[in-house]
Amino acid sequence: MAYSTIRYEIDDGIVRLTLNRPERMNAFTVEMCDELVDAYARASQDDGIGAIVVTGEGKAFCAGMDLSVDGNVFGLDETLSPTIEDMRDKLDDPAIHAGVRDTGGRVTLAMYDCLKPIVGAVNGVAVGIGSTMLLPMDFRLASHTARFGFVFGKLGITLEACSSWFLPRIVGLEQALEWGYRADIFDAREALEKKLVRSLHAPDTLMEDACAFARSLVKDRSPQSIALIRQMLWRNSAEPRPIEAHRIESLAVFYTSIADGKEGVRAFREKRPPRFSAKASEMPAFYPWDRPPERG
Amino acid sequence: MAYSTIRYEIDDGIVRLTLNRPERMNAFTVEMCDELVDAYARASQDDGIGAIVVTGEGKAFCAGMDLSVDGNVFGLDETLSPTIEDMRDKLDDPAIHAGVRDTGGRVTLAMYDCLKPIVGAVNGVAVGIGSTMLLPMDFRLASHTARFGFVFGKLGITLEACSSWFLPRIVGLEQALEWGYRADIFDAREALEKKLVRSLHAPDTLMEDACAFARSLVKDRSPQSIALIRQMLWRNSAEPRPIEAHRIESLAVFYTSIADGKEGVRAFREKRPPRFSAKASEMPAFYPWDRPPERG
Amino acid sequence: MAYSTIRYEIDDGIVRLTLNRPERMNAFTVEMCDELVDAYARASQDDGIGAIVVTGEGKAFCAGMDLSVDGNVFGLDETLSPTIEDMRDKLDDPAIHAGVRDTGGRVTLAMYDCLKPIVGAVNGVAVGIGSTMLLPMDFRLASHTARFGFVFGKLGITLEACSSWFLPRIVGLEQALEWGYRADIFDAREALEKKLVRSLHAPDTLMEDACAFARSLVKDRSPQSIALIRQMLWRNSAEPRPIEAHRIESLAVFYTSIADGKEGVRAFREKRPPRFSAKASEMPAFYPWDRPPERG
């Protein structure tokens, strides 16, 4: 897929994913949704890259949904009357997929399924979907000039992009309620204090810092180990009982212990860096372990 | 329903809900349970109000269950032998409802189902059910003189009012375990440090501050948008997978985008405050989305 | 069961559980797994003890899996090809139990099921399973000299011991991801700042402080009340809806209110310490309330 709203550039094992509509403050469109879904799936399967860094071209990160388009600005088919049963049983029906499903959610579910760590480099305004698409990232680094806002309430609509699932996991339920109700723009300092972002950076070193941090996470690591750790933490932690984690972890330790784990133990004994060979594009057969209808 | 243990007063779009047994330090009774359940349901459906502020009459907020009554002080029917199957299948059976179900839980489930933001103005001692009935509130503001305590362990009983579900979500599991085991009274400073309360206030400005904060959350907002944001954050965040949030958010954005969302986008483009008209008493058909037996 | 890798010593109502392979820095083995599972079950049923304090003999707490053994260092049967269905349906099959199930998870599930509060006294290096076996403890106290590390990624394997379930509940998802990826050793100060441990102590007062803290939690408490509070917080808080907590809490209040609750209320009215008599070894019939396949 050729991209027209984003850039996908590989640099020393890292994908730099850049929202690229600077003339529109990188405002989100249905096209950008499709391209981001594709880009995260592509990075998942590309064994040449270890991690993903996401930023925006120009001064903004993403100014939210592009409200200047004609018709339903969210890309929805207003002739439909979708029900909760439709959403449970027909999520992949073409009419539901194109005319009802929240585009932000399609992007964040692709990020949730991603096998590589994702680091945000929030270079400026990140509002609406610009804020909610940050939440499934592993880490959010931000410029001192960044601003954030879950502004949906001001438009009379609601949280989206699975942010009602992700945001309370990151900042707690009370803070999520407050930002949801307030629906205003807040600055990088508040985002740091409330732990929405991990650290603040000077605008001109942000991207460099984010790439260095991303590299530090995956250097000398087994891509299969990294992928499993990411998937296990997001999925297992949300299960109602630890026995569900035990089922998956047992298989994960079993299959990694007879693959990269052998080299890892050898390297540890020989006090040398390991040379791992298992690939994220060739995961053990038990992955993905979610049964329908749990899968995104 | 006429209330004898609480007061329900509307002031400029806010309900002031006051526990009103000051001669008993607003101690909780079965009657107060029934009246609170009614009051939260009433406020949910009253389109004239935007938010709820809860406080206690006199010096105390609520000194806990009234232990001075005769018979089973918790209002339970000791002739029954309820089983876990009864609780799964017969929760609404009159004998179970009246003689087994925890009265505190009946109140907090009504608060959980409430369509309006709830702000606590904790004006003094809040012990036992006085503490646990604070947990499903969106925000807890407290006087410097407030005191708290999950004292059930001192009485040889256990956590109630769904606090085993709510408390860890607010303060974390380790702190919940500590307060549950300690079962002692602690002061407002500890409550603030451990994030049980949002902020401390002078006793004589507490109620004014709480009402102003509550108003700030709902001013110029769509009541349907507010109701959906509240319900989605509590419910979706507890699902095992983000896809469940996606199903609900898609419908929420769909139906709000063709109602108050149109006015919201117009007002945004025209740089003026929106004039929303959708009502919380007329929610879109997909609400409530929980299927039995998930509903409270 | 006689123990050869741990010590189980009762001191004034507290079990001191000591990892006891100091010549190997208390490295974890399959034998230690079996002994720890037995010890936690024993302490659960021993009405003579109120709480458990866990520490390591010598300078280390636990240096992780003993990587010096022959064959599969994790004790796994490499001739098997386990599937996700096996883990769902055959977890207790002898071949799966012995050759596939993660030994760390068997220990932490026994800790999760334990009816007594567990306090860690982390006296030194706690790496790999040495770190993950701390997570189901109620509280972790540590020496200034303690060090921690979720080092699995360095070995090319993954998180285990249900840490993908427990760790995000304690320190949040972002921190869990970071430690999982970094896979390095970090010091007691970082563990304290990130809330992995509750408090730091001088090496020579750590055990005394931990025992005093453990005793303070259970003094004058009903063992049934303590056991139910522990089980309800861990289990109910992870349910998708508070109504599930309500079912269990209703039964817990019902059955404790007609047992130790009567003495508790009497003692409260008479302003004297209660004399509780209900035993953790004789729990009310509704415990355990988890249905298969939810149970660990």
Care to give the gist of this entry?
The structure is a homotrimer of 296-residue chains. The first copy, chain A, is α/β, with parallel strands linked by helices and 296 residues long. In chain A, 41% of the residues lie in helices and 13% in strands.
Protein architecture, described:
Three copies of one chain form a homotrimer. Chain A is of the alpha/beta class. Chain A has two domains: 6-218, 2-enoyl-CoA Hydratase, Chain A, domain 1; 220-296, Lyase 2-enoyl-coa Hydratase, Chain  A, domain 2. Helices cover 41% and strands 13% of the residues of chain A. Chain A is built from twelve helices and nine strands. Chain A has helices at 30-45, 84-89, 94-99, 103-112, 129-132, 163-171, 173-182, 188-193, 206-218, 223-236, 242-257, 260-269; strands at 6-11, 14-19, 51-56, 118-122, 125-127, 139-143, 147-149, 186-187, 199-201. In chain A, helix 1 packs parallel to helix 4 (103-112) and helix 6 (163-171) crosses helix 7 (173-182). The longest helix of chain A is centred in the N-terminal third of the chain and has 16 residues, at 30-45. Chains in contact: A-B, A-C, B-C. Chains A and B meet through helix 2, helix 4, helix 6 and helix 7 of A and helix 9, helix 10, helix 11 and helix 12 of B.
Net shape of chain A: globular
CATH architecture of the largest domain in chain A: Alpha-Beta Complex
Percent helix of chain A: 40-55%
Q: What is the number of domains of chain A?
A: 2
Unreliably modeled segments of chain A: none
Structural class based on helices, strands and sheet pairing of chain A: alpha/beta
C-alpha end-to-end distance of chain A: 22 Å
Provide the CATH superfamily of the largest domain in chain A: 2-enoyl-CoA Hydratase, Chain A, domain 1
Query: Which fold name corresponds to the CATH topology of the largest domain in chain A?
Result: 2-enoyl-CoA Hydratase, Chain A, domain 1
> How many extended strands of chain A?
9
What is the radius of gyration of chain A computed over CA atoms, rounded to a whole number of angstroms? Answer: 20 Å
How large a portion of the residues of chain A is in β-strands, by DSSP E?
5-15%
Top CATH class of the largest domain in chain A: Alpha Beta
- What order do the helices and strands of chain A follow? EEHEHHHEEHEEHHEHEHHHH
